Amino acid sequence: MSHVLIIAEAGVNHNGSVETAKRMIDKAVEAGADVIKFQTFKSEKLVSKSAKQAEYQKKNIANAENDSQLDMLRKLELSESDHNELMDYCAKKQIRFFSTAFDMESIDYLYSLQVGLWKIPSGEITNYPYLKKIAGFSEPVILSTGMCELQDVSEAISVLCDNGLRKEQISLLHCNTEYPTPFEDVNLLAMNELREKFGVRVGYSDHTKGIEVPIAAVALGAEIIEKHFTLDRNMEGPDHKASLEPDELKAMVAAIRNIERALGNGHKRVSESERKNIAVARKSIVAARDIKAGEVFSETNLTVKRPGNGISPMRWEEVIGKIAKKDFQEDELIEL
Prior knowledge:
By secondary structure, this protein is of the alpha/beta class. It has helices spanning about 20-30, 45, 55-60, 70-75, 80-95, 105-110, 130-135, 150-160, 190-200, 210-220, 245-265, 270-275, 280, 315-320, and strands at about 5-10, 35-40, 95-100, 120, 140-145, 170-175, 200-205, 225-230, 285, 300-305.
């Protein structure tokens, strides 16, 4: 299997602090992630004054003065200078910087940074002007499909391809947009339907608690895994509770790399590591008792025992009825 792209989703779990974001970059590097992803937005361009917080956001911001999305997002916004500082820090730490744009102005800004890869979040999959603008850059796109029917995905892909993107530049992430996602709502096998229906690279963006589901996704063929992480799940903020802590992120990456190696090439064959055990574990046709030369081999004087470096028991019918050319002691490998 090819290398699974692991995206450590910092999102807004930096709480608006560049220093916290840098510590998150350090932890993503330590965990072995390929990419760390942030979120780029101008709060006033993203939500209206009347937009309310989602239920999970209200639960995770216990001391919020109100339920305004705008007020919440203003505290989480990164400035252009913040972006530049974090990009430089990622370059220094040798991990790829990546971000999701949530408004048209932020798309232009990220394009100016030459990030070269676009992540379209589930909430923008029906945003025609947004999709059209990103498609026009003709750069690879990762499209999350939370809250989607197949028709929604199909229409979004059509918009992208009609406006400058080649289908092979599109990757789809199966996703459930509930934080945290109940296990019974994950529907991980739907990832296979996305692959079969659209013929593109597929992966999985996970919002469940724990690391089991993304690992299972890789076993099912996910080529991209995206997972939120935080320095501390007890921090104040909308996404911390549904995020991994650094040690968990590290464990997830290690497990994915193991599964990646374990998947192999799909062809059933004897591996080099097990070849030496064939003679030890398999059996051969041996004498069940002492046999004199001239005796006929039969079911009463032959049996099957280890080791497996003699005549294979699969030749049993061939051996039965043959005449012993020499004496055999009990347990001795039979020779024809």
